[in-house]
Amino acid sequence: MTDLGLLDHIRKLLLRNKCQYDDMLKASKESRAALQRVLHLGQASGKPGEIYYPLQLKRTEKPVPGDHEVLVQLKAAALNHRDLFVRQHQYPAISLDHPMLSDGYGVITEVGRDVSNKSQLGENVLLTPMRGWISDPAGPEDPQKWSITGSTRLYDVGTAQDYVCVHKDEVVPAPKHLSATEGAALPLVGLTAWRALVTKAAVQPGQNVLITGIGGGVALSALQFGVAMGANVFVTSGSQEKLLRARDLGALGGAIYKLETWEADIRRQLPPSRPFIDAVIDGAGGDIVVKAVKLLKPGGVIVQYGMTVSPKMNWPMPAVLLNAELKGTTMGFRKEFRDMVAFVDREGIRPVISRVVQGLSNLKDIDGIFDDMKAGRQMGKLVIKMEEPSSPKI
Fold first, then answer.
1. Locate the Enoyl reductase (ER) domain: which residues (predicted)?
2. Alpha carbon distances (Å) from 48 to 87, 89, 92, 93, 176
């Protein structure tokens, strides 16, 4: 074979190999396009509270909606404090295999055969963040089947994935003024705050409301909702910066809860015409009742939606003599969720966002927003935008 013949032979081999490579690359891309990313928890050992499950990403087949289901392509998802507790195994019925997170905003891309409202196709929606609580104002119809979605053995539903199939009644049209990240920041904290303020505390315009621990998602939602309802809202925080931000959002006053006599600081800021607190919205527990009875009106209400400081609280005699009421609350049911979203839509409320991570595959930065939550650095919601960042053009 001549040198020219040899070169021509090599050129043909290279061209054939390139074609084969291109075909393989195309097939690989098509195969990956038929799969979806799912963020879940990895294996780890240790005691509850000491363990910290790692984040893992897997690929699964894109789901197909059942007869009464819709397929939602998720655009953004958000963290809640529950997700941190799940990683620390401080929450019941944890699943390491099921998708994480309960807050999500997306677009309906397919509908099941028996979904009569075909106009839902292309609609931006919020996902209900719970299952097993349909219509009873008192509590879940069957507590054994009630759960927040994400990383739970009870339901294979979570928002930390590209696509999710849910029953058609488990989505609500997203307020049009919200972006994808703002929409994802709303569901769980908005529902919890709404039930605490409306169903439990029955807050009315002109009443004084104390919201503790401003900076977290529920507290901020309660602040925004309370202000929109016409209440006088006062807050506590461990940070002066967060108190100033709360004032920007409409709070009339606030105090640093790290100070021993923070309740006296709140009392000095109350209006002379109404020198007491009508309702306290609290998610920390600890000594809140001891402090609150010094501010509450007779028959005033403390609504407890969490106990992040301690699983126990004191109920002192002054609370009894004040005829104070302590009401526990957890999230809410489907109608409350729809009412809350309608209120946000009507009032033009935008959830407060602390930080957004770009890309579901960006595990390093997703771990970073979990670190923000652990350290209490956030002022608002921590959100994941599903789409990966664009590669810089060379």
1. 46-384
2. 9, 5, 11, 13, 41
pLDDT for 353-369, tens place per residue?
A: 999 999 999 999 999 99
Helix (H), strand (E) at residue 61: strand 55-61
Segment 197-240, tens digit of pLDDT: 999 999 999 999 999 999 999 999 999 999 999 999 999 999 99
Q: Are 37 and 360 in contact (CB under 8 A)?
A: yes
For the stretch 12-42, pLDDT in tens is 666 666 655 555 445 444 444 579 999 999 9
Residue 316 has pLDDT above 80, yes or no: yes
Distance CA 65, CA 63 (A): 7
Tokens 């602390």 sit on residue: 354
Coil, helix or strand at residue 281: strand
The pLDDT score that the predictor gives to residue 30 is 46
Asked if 352 contacts 249 with a C-beta cutoff of 8 angstroms, the reply is yes
pTM of the model: 0.89
d(CA 263, CA 290): 10
Dihedral of alpha carbons 178, 345, 106, 133, sign? positive
Q: Which domains does the chain have, with CATH numbers?
A: 33-185+351-385 (3.90.180.10), 191-328 (3.40.50.720)
Q: Confirm if 251 and 269 have CB atoms less than 8 A apart.
A: no
Report the number of secondary-structure helices (H) and strands (E) in the chain.
11, 17
Q: CB neighbours of 202 closer than 8 A, spacing ≥ 6?
A: none
Give mean pLDDT, residues 110-118: 91
Tokens 């599903």, located at residue: 386
Q: Any bridge partners for residue 253, and if so which?
A: 234
Cα torsion 135, 139, 143, 149: sign: positive
- CA distances in angstroms from 377 to 91, 110, 172, 204, listed in the order given: 22, 39, 31, 32
Tracing tokens 């529920």 back to the chain, one arrives at 218
Euclidean distance between CA atoms 194 and 200, whole angstroms: 9
